Amino acid sequence: MELTLAEERILDGEEGYAHQLAMKIVVKLGEIFAADRLIPITSAHISGASYKTIGDAPIEFLEDLVKNGARASVKATLNPVGFDLHDYKNWSLSQTIIEKQKLIIRLYEALNIQPILSCTPYYFEELSLGDHVAFSESSACVYTNSVIGARTNREGGPSALASAIIGKTANYGLHITELRQPKLLVEVETPPKEYAEFGMLGTYVGRLARDHIPIFQGIRTATNNQLKYLGAGLASTGMVAMFHMRGITPEVQKIDIKECCEKITITQDELNNELHKLSTTDSIPDLIFIGCPHCSLQEIQEIAAYLRHKKVRADLKLWICTSQAIKEVAQEEIEMIENAGAKVICDTCIVVAYLEQLGIKTMMTSSAKAANYTPHFCDIDSVMNTVQGCLDTATTKLKDI
Amino acid sequence: MPLTSITGRSVVSGKAKGKVLFSSEAISFLGGVNPKTGLVVEKGHCLEGKSVKETVLVFPHGKGSTVGSYVLYSLAKNNAAPKAIINRIGDPVVVVGAIIGEIPMLIDVDIDLLNDGMMVEIDADRGIIKLIDA
Fold it and tell me: What CATH number labels B5-131?
């Protein structure tokens, strides 16, 4: 790999320990993946923030970086943590958990990383076609590559952090135009309509695609919100970091579809089976959850419109997850949702939150990603349903079901 | 003539001499290894109950969360890290962990030539593993 003189100097430690370490991480990964050089990035998004999933492991490392004066040199944002920082009093969390979680956030802040505590950084920054970034958080990677056309590899937390510090990443993988070509043609017979259906198409195809880039054919229209669920599903069951969709995604015109070697066809039967696969029980849920990835403003508006004149059943909880930033701009809608008896939760997500402490046994969700992860991460049963189905269940009296 | 040395690609330089702890299975450091003691705690893992501390840890590649890199850093800080790491495939989680924990590491090694308990001497600067018992 060719390094500039300035990069060599950092690697030799002339700008201190923290920069040297960050440079070593980026350069070594670049060597392994046969990168030719480093390229500047415009932003970074860092996962590894919830104390529940990461424990004490990164604390010492982050402390050492802070002590050595490391700071992100480009815009950098942080993924969700283990609880809502403004509303955790009823979560029965130990003092240790609360303090350790807050310490981790402080350390990242000291490294100049903005605690947006959301998995949807693309809602809060200007990303353009062709921009190079370093994103960890698999669903954000897929959205950024596929829907926006900015370029990122599927980074891990530490490599995204290292890239944020030096403002560069190694030029390999999805940063290179030729490597953004699809390898798997997915013919969809019955186009998905609901967010949940896009998510299930994602979890189903993710298992088959492994690390190949799929190109979808047969879907005439899709909103960015729908594509968000598709991408989150793809990344949760596969190593997929990007997809294309004919007539819809920004880089699809340049693709010669004949070069795609493998083809699969998805029928309605397969999507029905996926619904059953993502449901580990058919019992009545005690929690209904919407918002993985975090809800956009439009989704919050849709949920508010549904709940406007309704009440959530007293025997279950309805949670909507979004980011603090969306909550602030949607105050009226949030009020409508909370007046119906639902709860809007920020800063965290069902997958990385301390659910066990709340005695939750069964969760119903419209997110295929959450349904796929939660039984493993949180040891609770999951029931997959559409957004409509989730909201209907949440607001229908038990005897009516 | 018996094999006396094998080669690999250097990821983290340094020299080490020690006994091979051989795992035929991939290792997840997050949740799989206690960061304070080095004990392998993953249920049903072929190394369960053994300690990676001061061994030459040989395994095919890493698996699991990228937070595993930080566990290798903590192991090094707590003097519970392996003396060296030898992998068949360089996986970003372990590679980053070895860099930040300053643990000598070689990848692209034909690990089937190594056996559990074997004494080896590693020169990660030159990418050479000397088989002392061989």
Answer: 3.50.30.10
